[in-house]
Task: structure prediction
Amino acid sequence: MATYAYAWHIYFNFSGYTNLVTGIALLLGFVVPRNFNAPYLAINLADFWRRWHISLSTFIRDYVYIPLGEIVRALFDKM
Result:
């Protein structure tokens, strides 16, 4: 029971901070993308990761995964 309560605590904690930042951003005229999409309704781990912390996943994909993939591809093209 405590495990489930802790999982919900983490979700509501992150969600609350995200909502606070989203509200401040809207007051300042910025549009912030959604950060969660019902992660605990996911059917597997990959779906959970896509739904949990969407902005972090997008950042990692755009600024880490894709650039590293291009570097590795360029190295193999030279061989």
